[in-house]
Amino acid sequence: MPAIPSFGGLRGRTNRVTPPTAPIPVPLSAYVVDCGVYVDGERLPGRWTHIDAVAEVRRRGEGFVWIGLHEPDERQIQGVAETFGLHELAVEDAVTAHQRPKLERYDDNLFMVLKTVRYVEHESPTTANEIVETGEIMAFLGADYVVTVRHGKHSGLHDLRAELERSPDRLRGGPAAVLHAIADHVVDTYLAVTDAFEGDIDLIEKAVFAPRSPVSAEQMYLMKREILELRRAVMPLANPLRRLAEGCSPLVPDTVRSYFRDVDDHLTTVSERVTSFDELLTTLVDATLAKITLQQNTDMRKITSWAAIIAVPTMVVGVYGMNFDHMPETHWRFGYPMVMAVIFVACIVLYRIFRKNRWL
């Protein structure tokens, strides 16, 4: 009898479950792009944390703090929220992103969302997979601070901050002046994107009405989708800008309201252009579908014409291929040439008729 192997060495062993690895905490400094203290339009020297910066401003009784964050998580932004007293619902929106442009008022601060857009360079609009890329900028506005939260790689504010620091008169307007500069920067980007988009639409329009154009219905729907993406960024921003221009909060002084009216005027121009692009693309989509339908009808006429021409020899060959002895001209010397001549003449006549009617 064969020996039974012993499994005693396996006794007492248990399957150990590896506990889930806790996420590595990332310091807030990894998300802070810049933090500056501005007094009388000038930036104070030195590096500041958000706690030290707001303490310095409130100790002086003047100036404001501008802190910029890039895609922070909920845990990292919590410290900033507690320091500046930001509302939890606004903080949740800032972390989650994918918000519509809006302006909300929470107690003694404002929360504004702006959609940023970037024109994606490509060789031709007829082969592009993406034309417009979007991001977001959220801004918390208080009496002595402005906190900006960015989502997306193209929504940087470094150049804008440097430009404002070279113009102390603008920064003397306080946090509202910074919010205006951001809104103006975003709307100017809209104008640049619509300029580039207009060139693409002109090329598409020429291609659609050109003979044997390479534009397909799928490409037209892509253009339509991209202009709708731009529309969703532009159109909802009109109401927040109008509210800021009308003075919805004492945080926006009268000296800054007129500047928001100018931004609103520029946004109106962008909105009109986007609407015209949308209507033109709708027309081009209809023209493309009509052109495809016409091409299909032309192909069907060609197929039908050739089928009618081929039916003549098929019918004759089918009749004389039945091999009956008592058939006309089966034993006539000139029967075969005569049949071939009749087939040839009939095919030529049908071909000329179809060519005359432009079926071929």
From TrEMBL:
Its main subcellular localisation, reduced to a broad class, is membrane
Q: Membrane topology per the record?
A: Multi-pass membrane protein
Q: Does the keyword Nucleus apply?
A: no
**Reactions catalysed according to its record:** Mg(2+)(in) = Mg(2+)(out)
A single cellular component GO annotation: plasma membrane
Write down the superkingdom of origin: Bacteria
Q: Which UniProt keywords apply?
A: Cell membrane, Ion transport, Magnesium, Membrane, Transmembrane, Transmembrane helix, Transport
TM segments? 303-322, 334-354
Q: Localized where? A: Cell membrane
Q: Which family does it belong to?
A: Belongs to the CorA metal ion transporter (MIT) (TC 1.A.35) family.
What name does this protein carry? Answer: Magnesium transport protein CorA
